[in-house]
Amino acid sequence: MDHLQRSRKPPTSHGDGSFTSQSFLKLGTGVIFEAGVLVFHPETIRIGDDVYVGHQAILKGYFRGEMHIGSGTWIGQQCFLHSAGSIFVGTDVGIGPGVKMLTSTHQDPGIHLPIMEGELKFAPIVIGEGSDIGTSAVLLPGTVLGRGCIVGAGAVTKGTFPDYAVIAGVPAKVLKIRDR
């Protein structure tokens, strides 16, 4: 217990999530931010034209990595996108309510230390154009979705999935390839 008490860093705030249109690396035209949207490190975020961001969504940029959201993308309410390891969303992507995208994880520091003291490992998330992510899906670091993928509600993805794949489950697996 003594080690845990000594190793804790004093808490610091990441800010209040407020932003202006000038804060972004790029902000396209026709972008809608609903009430309660929070944006952190907007200087690392690029958003294309005609993007919708639903109520209480959190776009959590980071001092490293970037977030790119393609034109015509729809982000549902209460989504959480954390781009420490970078997130690249293609054009015309649907991201259902409550979806979580995480691009970092703590490495195991060994059994004598808390996991939170493990080194951070970063891996990007890439979502191909025209894909659709179901409600409450979780995309883990290193997820790569090809073009036109469908991810089922509640799925947990990690790894690379081909174009037009229908993906579901925990852990997520390819159920079939959509007809082109």
Strand elements, count: 23
- Describe the main β-sheet briefly: 8 strands, mixed
The helix/strand class is mainly beta
The first-level CATH class name: Mainly Beta
Please state the CA-atom Rg, rounded to the nearest Å: 17 Å
From N to C, what is the helix and strand string?
A: HEEEEEEEEEEEEEEEEEEEEEEE
- Kindly report the CATH topology: UDP N-Acetylglucosamine Acyltransferase, domain 1
Shape label: globular
- CATH homologous superfamily descriptor: Hexapeptide repeat proteins
Widest sheet, order of strands: 2-5-8-11-16-19-22-23
CATH architecture call: 3 Solenoid
> Strand content of the residues, in percent?
25-35%
What separation lies between the terminal Cα atoms?
58 Å
Counting structural domains, the number is 1
Summed over residues and divided by their number, the pLDDT gives a mean of 94
Helix content: under 10%
Low-confidence stretches: 1-6
Please work out how many helical segments DSSP would assign: 1
